[in-house]
Structure formats: structure tokens, C-alpha cells
């Protein structure tokens, strides 16, 4: 089974106190009609072009999103699946028995974990009870799933000294920011010592942001290794030498 296929979700639409799961359609701008203009469940051409500019435009079709008001927390578009592919790849190259996921969201990584026969238990830590109420019941049908209603940082202090997992993934941040690197290091230090693999969503992009903004805010530089600094410097030199 393809990694992206493992991440497909079928969580039903619903709403709990402002938190909403809804289906939406992506239509290529070339196929846009007046009928689409009247619908609220379709991505506008402008939004599509913005996603295309960022190389994140999904193929035409139906998708699911988790949102609060106008703020989208997560969707299952191809680009978002790509953002979460690393832990699924690590599961596919090993035979994990225990998985830890910080941040439930729509459950894409959780859904993928449950497709592996070797997995015997998945611990999910989620702070927002609305997300648990909306998404949790769909996955709790599988008795391998344990959902812990807690703040992910605080939960680290509650695990027993012998707690161990094979694969870990943390996705608790609403946006990509160098300001998240301090928390990411805490998760890496804790779960890195207790997992065969642990990763943080968007960490690479957050480090790149810290490097790009280093001249007016050097706080994030302390989270970059010498190898990463050398890599970013080399990338900058290549971009500067590129002839337009």
C-alpha cells in the first residue's frame, strides 16, 4: 500500500462548539463555473492559484478539513499528507509495535499507523476536547488506540520511566514559525531518547525561517546545528549565483 493511501481518512463531518469537520471540493480554475460561485464547499480559483504558487495545489476532488471559524487546522490534501509522510515512511521501513502521536487533528498519521499489522498500540495526546469528541470515536473503534486528553508538553512528565515507543510524531503547532523551535527541542530531547524515531511537523521549515530571519532576530539560530548552518549557507550561495 502506498504511503499516501495509508493516510486516507473517512472521518465523518460534524461540529462541536465551533470546531468543525467538513468536506470540500477542489476544482481546477479552468473548470470553474457560475454554479461553483454559489457554493461554500468548493475552493475558489484565487485560493487554488495561491496554493499552486506555493506548490501545494491538490488534484481536483473531494477532501476533508478540520477548522475553527475561518482557521483551518488541518486537511487531508496531498500537500498535507506529504508534510506528514516522514513518520509513515519510518513505519513502513520497520515493524513498529508502539507509536506515539502528539496532536490528533484529523488522524492522518494515526490512520496510517493502524494499517500496519505489527502495530499493537498507538498513544495519542490531544489537548482540545472538541477534537477528541469529533475525531476520537472514529478511531477508538480499534482497541489498539489510546487517546490521552492532555497538553502534550505536560504529558511528557506523566509517562512512566520505562515508557518506550518505536515511532513518534509531534504536530501541535498551528503555523510554521521559528518560535516553535524551543518546544520542538523539548519533544526531541524527551521522545528522541524513548523512540526509535521521533519527528516534529514543520521543523525543517521552521529552522529555515530562523536562518532567513537571523539578521533581525537571531534567537532561533541556537537550535540550528553546524551541519544545518552550512547547508543553508550553501543553498543561499547557489541561489545568489543562479542566473535569471
In a few lines, what is going on in this structure?
The chain is α/β, with parallel strands linked by helices and 244 residues long. The protein is built from 11 helices and 9 strands.
- What characteristic shape results from the CA principal axes? globular
Order of neighbouring strands in the sheet with most strands: 7-6-5-8-9
Radius of gyration: 19 Å
Q: State the end-to-end CA separation.
A: 41 Å
Would you tell me the structural class of the helices and strands?
A: alpha/beta
Record field, number of beta strands: 9
Helix content: 25-40%
Number of helices: 11
- Secondary-structure element string: HEEHHEEHHEHEHEHEHEHH
Largest sheet at a glance? Answer: 5 strands, parallel
Strand content: 15-25%
**Contiguous runs where pLDDT drops below 50 for at least 5 residues:** none
Taking all residues together, what is the mean pLDDT? 95
